[in-house]
Amino acid sequence: MSGTDVSTGQSGRRRPARERLLAAAARRFYADGVAATGIDTITADAGVAKMSLYNNFSSKAELVRAYLDARHEEWLGLYRARLEQARGPRAGVLAVFDAYADHAASGYEHGFRGCGLLNAAAELPAADEGRAVVRAHKEEVERLIAGHLEELLPGSPDEAHATAEHLSFLLEGAMARAGLEGDGVRLQHARSLAADLLERL
Hints:
Layout: H1 17-32, H2 39-46, H3 50-56, H4 60-85, H5 89-105, H6 116-123, H7 129-152, H8 157-181, H9 185-199
């Protein structure tokens, strides 16, 4: 999602058209918004013909869903990398916060604008399938937090789930403010608040 050349990989070899289209869409959707980004812009950035886009995606809506799925997997990768360094359930919860901070610290070409999934969902109609992708991502984040809390509070599943909801609200609020302010400072504050809460459990 940074300003790197979307047409080639690290080896310098030309990537498949689908990969280039997804990379271009990811960069443009995040920077400019879904509605403001046309097919012509994406194909030009990807360096492919318009027909190539329709050979890989049946519509712009399908491209948007693929973008959302890719953002979800990207975040899961950040979380798993953080989780590998975590020791214990408290650190597991904080790994979720750290993954969001890592997302904010990525080198975005036009600056950090908050959660790309929520930004896209805000532009989609209420019944759009893309919104279901975003909802599933947010629900999974809360489930991950809840799983760590269940390990921390094995005899108190209700408290674990209520605390997971509380922390997910804290995380989403911090992400929204961070997106408006263009940096990850609010996410660091949220992590500190979460750490303090976890120490009291």
